[in-house]
Amino acid sequence: MSFPEIKEVCVVGAGNMGHQIGLCCALAGCTVRCTDVDDATLARAEKFADSYLEARVSKGKLDVDAAGSVRNRISFPPEIESAASNADIVIEAIIENLELKKRLFAQLDKICPEHCILSTNSSYIVSSKIAPATGKPERVCNLHFFNPALVMRLVEVVQGPHTSEETVQRVFSFAKKINKTPILLKKEIYGFVVNRILKAILDEALHLHDIGVADYHDIDTAVVDALGHPMGPFRLLDLVGVDLQYQVCMERYRDTGDLRDMPSPLLVEKFVRKEWGRKSGVGFYRYDD
Ligand code: 3HC
Predict the structure, then answer these.
(1) pTM listed for this prediction
(2) Average pLDDT, the chain
(3) Is the distance from the beta carbon of residue 230 to the nearest atom of ligand 1 less than 6 Å?
């Protein structure tokens, strides 16, 4: 059986990751329908698309006509049925809750065309936990983007034991089409490649702070000025979200029962205070706009 090229994309979850993923696809020529259960999130996503494209034009990175075409290719329907019924691929970018994801995938399985690939952008939930909720597990995989999705080139394609070779190949071609660099993970593993490495860095940075060696400004300076990273670990935590990192640690701790996987005291403190980073206006740093 041959499959059509992926042209129609549905993104479910229009938060920061979802709407930027949708824009990447629209910029690359795909027709994108980005949906969300929350009207305010959808409105913010649409506003972001307008202001992002305007900024690209004023920076001279896109001409007005091209920006207009991109804008015409992305829409923000509130109903999942109209967003997904014609999709060649769905990219799920909702909150990190397994039960919600299973329910959503079961619903998508009924709405989407037979050939449609169902992928999840989850940071740590592997698709074999979700695929049994569908009738086509061979078309389910992880497709993991990085924040900010419009800028970061890498995507991780994770092949579960249920994912067919053909799905992997189609997702790889799609990733290249949207100007990303895909890497293949042939096994499902907690945290995939990038977040495992990132967790080691973040854990050590939090530990150094927790035992009073240095404050977080200085740890960030060390990592930027000595290791050449574009931002230090605390600024990065603010970017990805303190809440997400807290959840990642808690989920890992629930799985392993290993106290070393518990979130650090500083991370717990920030989480409880709702100082979640850029999204809440304050994290380790302040974000006034
Ligand atoms: N959204 C969209 N675009 C953004 C952006 C954002 N939040 N922040 C910056 N940009 C764009 C700018 O518009 C600019 O685009 P242009 O060059 O085409 O005009 C470009 O990025 C560079 O921006 P700046 O000059 O303002 O700032 P920097 O050069 O400092 O780059 C950065 C900002 C790209 C965020 C850079 O600091 C960086 O790469 N940081 C590390 C990010 C990172 O490690 N991400 C991975 C996180 S892990 C993850 O996401 C996994 C998940 O599961 C948790």
Answers:
(1) 0.96
(2) 96
(3) yes
Is the peptide bond prior to 233 cis by the omega test (within 30 degrees of 0)? Answer: no
Instruction: Find out whether the beta carbon of 150 lies less than 6 Å from any atom of ligand 1.
Output: yes
Phi-psi region of 41 (alpha: psi -120 to 50; beta: other; left: phi over 0): alpha
Q: Which tens digits make up the pLDDT trace of 222-280?
A: 999 999 999 999 999 999 999 999 998 998 899 899 998 999 999 999 999 999 999 99
The token pair at 163 is 């994912």
User: Is it the case that residue 1 has pLDDT exceeding 70?
Assistant: no
Cα gap 258→255, rounded to integer Å: 8
Q: CB of 59 closer than 6 A to ligand 1? A: yes
Beta bridge partners of 8: 31
For residue 241, give the ligand 1 atom closest to its CA.
Answer: 54
Name the residue with the closest Cα to ligand 1, atom 1. Answer: 148
CA–CA separation, 286 vs 211, rounded Å? 24
Task: Give distance in angstroms: CA of 265 to centre of ligand 1.
Answer: 28
H helices of the chain, in order, are 16-27, 39-58, 64-73, 80-84, 98-111, 165-177, 194-210, 216-227, 233-240, 242-256, 265-272
* Of the candidates 251, 245, 288, the residue with the CA atom closest to the CA atom of residue 269: 245
Domains annotated for the chain, with CATH where assigned, are 8-185 (3.40.50.720), 195-272 (1.10.1040.50)
- Cβ(245) – ligand 1 distance below 6 Å: no
Residue 144 bears catalytic tag: yes
- Packing angle, helices 216-227 and 233-240, rounded to 10: 100
Tens of pLDDT, residues 3-19: 778 999 999 999 999 99
